[in-house]
Amino acid sequence: MSRAAKWSLTIVILLAVVVAGIALFAHEPEIPTASIDPKQFPEEQVRRGQEVASASMCVVCHTAPGGAVNAGGFHMETPFGVIVSTNITPDTESGIGAWSFEAFERAMRRGVARDGTHLYPAFPYTSFTKMSDEDMRSLYAYMMSQPPVRNEPQATRLPFPFNQRALMAGWNLLFLDRDPVAKVASESEAWNRGQYLAVALGHCSACHTPRNALGAEKTGKDYLGGGEAEGWIAPALNGSSKAPIPWTEQALFDYLRAGYSDQHGAAGASMTPVVRVGTSQIAESDTRALATYIASQMAGAGQGKTGPTPPQREAAAQAAVATTDTLGARIYANACAACHHPGPGGPDLFGAQPPLWLATSLNLDQPDNVIRYVLNGTQHDAGNPRGGHMPGYAYALNDAQVTAVVQFMRESFTGQPAWTDVQDAVRRIRGEYPLALQGRGE
Ligand code: HEC
Ligand code: HEC
Ligand code: HEC
């Protein structure tokens, strides 16, 4: 073990001991089971609750691949181990069917389950704690009115010390900010609505903000400064955005509503379900409000940068593809240009022709997202007719070939310095896949 690793382990253990002390004094009582009649909730309240659930994207985390909606069993990779989501259908045995509103609200606002055990903040109660009382009651009415599904997902087992759930009482003392979202009087109604949707419901910062060593979101200038989700980089949505063309309110609206912006490309990876079940399903005025708020956070990014326009970028890409004669350029021409064809007259295959010369992923400091796109492809779109599918190249291309095509795109489609150590990153990312999907490697 390196010195640095020993130090961080010592610090984590010390912190754990301190926090355990605090936790001993922070015992949470069990809340008795209740019998809930879903017919008690007015239809209008249930309908509003459905909108809150969409904006908060509960189904994304609480539905296992191929499993019943909200019946749990989705595996979340975190730096502390795999955390399995629970069944939040109103089944009385395996779900939350016997939870009173009081128990539900405590879980949502303070991260404590009905039986008094602490929940991990992989469940974004850190955002939901800021939900308005009215939205919380509507959400409860909606959840309790859904069909109950009997399903007992596998239990979460993190390694010591993280398996000591009581430690989360200390974590909450340190990091849980329960203040409601503060209205900003100088901003418009739409901006304030967008702020509330982004912070309290949509938990955009859960993925788009970097976290500290104990897994809490950083604040201040790091807010929306770029984070991580399932191994993918969730790009910065603040002034440090690397998007080659600055995002506008309209472009954000297109991307969040339809999963695609002409100026930026498609929503991929874990942003796809955010659009599919969240931002495309809420009221259109709410998607606009989100766009207004996020655009204001991004103000300043790329400003004063009089970079090439989208047509100029496309023309440069076209020239590079036509004239470069490297391994990477040849792979691009043969394997990729059919869909990513720069210049006029390119095919509109499968309804999409994603403009890589406008993609943020190629402009980030690390090549991870681009490598993941090339190895995995994308098999799902955000539900929009212009989205499309991309085959994965894990089998067709070996590490050196993936490296070559990634370097070619970086050099030819962006004004950014070349990435170093791409081949190491390709090897590392391939190694993370299950054996059957690792492909060719060397
Ligand atoms: C980012 C992923 C994520 C989202 C989004 C999410 N949850 Fe969860 N939720 C989890 C995980 C993971 C757990 C289990 C945490 C644990 O075991 O400590 C959980 C636990 C819960 C629990 C505690 C259940 C129990 O049996 O202990 C409730 C209640 C809950 N979520 C409700 C919701 C609702 C309602 C929404 C939408 C408004 C929602 N969650 C959105 C990940 C998520
Ligand atoms: C579960 C994690 C997750 C959540 C939650 C999430 N995002 Fe994302 N987001 C991502 C990832 C990963 C990408 C990169 C996608 C890609 O490369 O195709 C992304 C990309 C984006 C982009 C494109 C940025 C660029 O420069 O290309 C925008 C805009 C965006 N998200 C907005 C939002 C908003 C607004 C919310 C909240 C409503 C949100 N995201 C919630 C993971 C997330
Ligand atoms: C069959 C058509 C097709 C082929 C062939 C194809 N792609 Fe794609 N590619 C797509 C589509 C569609 C998307 C957008 C998908 C999404 O994000 O939902 C995409 C997205 C991407 C992205 C992400 C862009 C962004 O917005 O961040 C990269 C990088 C990429 N492709 C590179 C390649 C490379 C390199 C090759 C060749 C080795 C290739 N593609 C071959 C269809 C294709």
Plain-language structure description:
There is one protein chain. With 442 residues, the chain is mainly α. It folds into three domains: 3-175, no CATH class; 189-297, no CATH class; 310-437, Orthogonal Bundle (Cytochrome Bc1 Complex, Chain D, domain 2). The protein is built from 17 helices and six strands. A two-stranded antiparallel ribbon has the order 1-2. A two-stranded antiparallel sheet has the order 3-4. Strands 5-6 form a two-stranded antiparallel ribbon. The longest helix is centred in the N-terminal third of the chain and has 22 residues, at 3-24. The chain starts with a helix and ends in a 10-residue tail after the last helix. It binds heme C (3 copies). InterPro entries: Cyt_c-like_dom, Cyt_c-like_dom_sf, Cytochrome_c-type_DH, Membr-bd_ADH_cyt_c. It comes from Pigmentiphaga kullae. Heme c 2 binds at residues 204, 207-208. This is Mono/diheme cytochrome c family protein.
Number of strands: 6
SS element count, helices = 17
Q: What form results from the Cα inertia axes?
A: globular
Order of helices and strands: HHHEEHHHHHHEEHEEHHHHHHH
How much helix, percentage-wise, in residues?
40-55%
Low-confidence stretches: none
Mean pLDDT: 91
Question: How is the largest sheet built, in terms of strand order?
Answer: 1-2
User: What's the N-to-C terminus distance?
Assistant: 29 Å
How would a crystallographer describe the biggest sheet? 2 strands, antiparallel
Count up the domains.
3
The percentage of residues in β strands lies in under 5%
- Structural class assignment: mainly alpha
Radius of gyration: 23 Å
Bound molecules: heme C
InterPro entries: Cyt_c-like_dom (IPR009056), Cyt_c-like_dom_sf (IPR036909), Cytochrome_c-type_DH (IPR051459), Membr-bd_ADH_cyt_c (IPR014353)
Subcellular location: Cell membrane
GO molecular function, one term: oxidoreductase activity, acting on CH-OH group of donors
Domain Cytochrome c: 44-147, 189-298, 323-413
